[in-house]
Each structure stands twice: as structure tokens, then as C-alpha cells.
Amino acid sequence: MPSRESCEVHKEDKSLVQKAKREANQEDILAAALGMRMGPQKPAATFWQPLKLFAYSQLTSLVRRASLKESERAPRSEKVHNFKVHTFRGPHWCEHCASFMWGLMAQGVKCTAADRSELIPLYIFLSDCGLNVHKQCSSLVPSDCKPDLRHIRKVYSCDLTTLVKAYNTARPMVVDMCIREIESRGLKSEGLYRISGFSDSVEEVKMAFDKDGEKTDISVNAYEDINIITGALKLYLRDLPVPVISYDAYPRFIEAAKLTDSEKKLEAFREALALLPPSHSDTLKYLMAHLKRVTQNEKFNLMNAENLAIVFGPTLMRAPNMDAISALNDIRYQRQVVEALIKNEDVLF
């Protein structure tokens, strides 16, 4: 009759054999997921060890991300992810739960850039942050899409929120750089913003921003005519896929402009401004403060709040999904909105 010691040794040997079989089976599954074949001529350790090291380096950051407390995440986000089914090459781990993404095809979903045709009639413009997660984890991921700068191919026509998140700025660089240049040498220029710059030069500035970004030279040495810089700024604002005054906030601004009681009108504008996403709100605030300074030089540039509102009304806000007649009727209210924002800049922002 076998002794107790021999039975325990036998059980221990059996468990080690079973463990080895499980590990070998895991290696075979992973090899299949990677599209590789493992023959007897290639020892498992040779294949498995580099993957262990790679997995460890990946999981170190992923586990930390997955274990973040809710309070440690961004307090407010205005961009949702655009997840699409994706087939990954090589080993990938879910960036939400930190688990391996098994399979040969369509192992998970990836946040990818939306086409212009996918733009929904809200301020959200879906963009590419490259987040990789399981399909079942996609509904659990916070709406905090942070676009990757590598995917930003141009500045003009790029969604405002996408641009500021990619560059980690409060406002688009075009707005900041153009306004600084205008205020440094153009506030007293007659017809500022009303007079158009040479269209070819304005297009040249646009192409320079798309190519060089914040390194673009718009100094007096490059463009002596300040109207070229104002034209470039207006073109940037017109080209935004979602206007500065976003589509979802548009009706509230128009309703506020129609009110006759001054106190109720100001309160309605405050409520409408609260609907704007942070990047749009910061940009509008900065722009209105600038236009207020332009009006303070009216005796030189001949541009008051009403004149500027005529220029910037259709530039800053566009009617969402309206017929031509309704959109045409809204033009005068668009002007009233911008005029009120300029005149009351100090109390509204």
C-alpha cells in the first residue's frame, strides 16, 4: 500500500503537469490570436518570454488607467468616442479593463475619426483618439475623447474642440495668434474687419497654419496689410464644422435676442452661454473682449458694435437644419446676438 508521502508527491506532480498543460494551451491560443504557428522545433519559452515582457510593460500603464477613481478622471468632457469594430495586428490589451483582447479578427473596437458626413447636428465632432477597448467595455468608457495630435492633419476646417484638445490649449491657435497680431498693430486701422484682404494672401495664411501650425509667421514682415490677418481669422471661424455658437445653443441665443426686457434678455443670454462647450465658450469670450477693444477705437477704425455684428453674425452662428426662408429671417437676430455680446461683454462673461 503506497504511503501518504508518496501520494502527496504524486498529487503534486500531477498538478504541475496540469499547470504546464494549461500554460501550453494558453500559448497556443495566443499564437492563434497573433496569426502564428508554433512547431515542435520552436520551444515555447523562446516564444513566450518576450511576450511576457511586452505584456508586463503594456499592463503597467493600462492597469493604472483602469483602476483610476472617478474623481481622478477629467471633471467635464464634451467629446464622445467614435468606436468602430477593428481587427488588431499583434497583441493588444483593452485600455479600459486591461484584459487581453482575444481573437483572430474584430477583437475589439477603436476610436476612429468620423467623416464630415457623420457630423451630427450638435457641438460634438467625433474624432480619433485611438482608444482600444473590448466591444463590451465601450459602453463603460467615459466620454473623454482626447484627440491624438498625430491625427490632426490641418488647422482650418478642424473641429474647434478637437483642435484645442489635441494641442492642449484653451483656444485655437489661429484665434490667439491673429488677435494678438491685430491688437499689436491694427486696432486703429480704418474699416477693420469690414475691409477684406487680398484673397490669395488670406489663402496663403490658411495654408501656412495648416502646414506649420503655431510656427506660422503672420508678423508685419510677412504680411504688412492687417486686413489679410483679419481675413484669415474670419475664414477660420467660417470654416469651423461646428460654429463657435454651437448648433444646440443656437435656438436659445435667437430666443434671447427676441426679448424686449433688458434684464430678461441678459439672463437669457447667460443661460444660452452656459450651453456652449468649454472650448467654444472660452473662444467666444476671448473674441468678444477683443471686439470690445476694437469698438473702443471707433474714432479711428470707424467700427462700432453694430458694424462688427453685421460682419461676425453669420460667421459665429449658423442655423441648424433650417429652410432657406427661416435662415434668412434669422440673419437680423444673429446680428443682434453678436451686438449684445459685444456691448455686454463685461457682464456676460
TrEMBL record:
Annotated gene: CHN1
Molecular function GO terms recorded: GTPase activator activity; zinc ion binding
Domain Rho-GAP: 158-349
Designated name of the protein: Chimerin 1
SMART domains on file: C1 (SM00109), RhoGAP (SM00324)
Domain of life where this protein originates: Eukaryota
Domain Phorbol-ester/DAG-type per the UniProt entry, residue ranges: 80-145
Keywords from the named record: GTPase activation, Metal-binding, Zinc, Zinc-finger
PANTHER family listed in its UniProt record: CHIMERIN FAMILY MEMBER, N-CHIMAERIN
InterPro entries (alphabetical): C1-like_sf, DAG/PE-bd, PKC_DAG/PE, Rho-type_GAP, Rho_GTPase_activation_prot, RhoGAP_chimaerin, RhoGAP_dom
GO biological process terms held by the UniProt record: signal transduction
Listed SUPFAM superfamilies: Cysteine-rich domain, GTPase activation domain, GAP
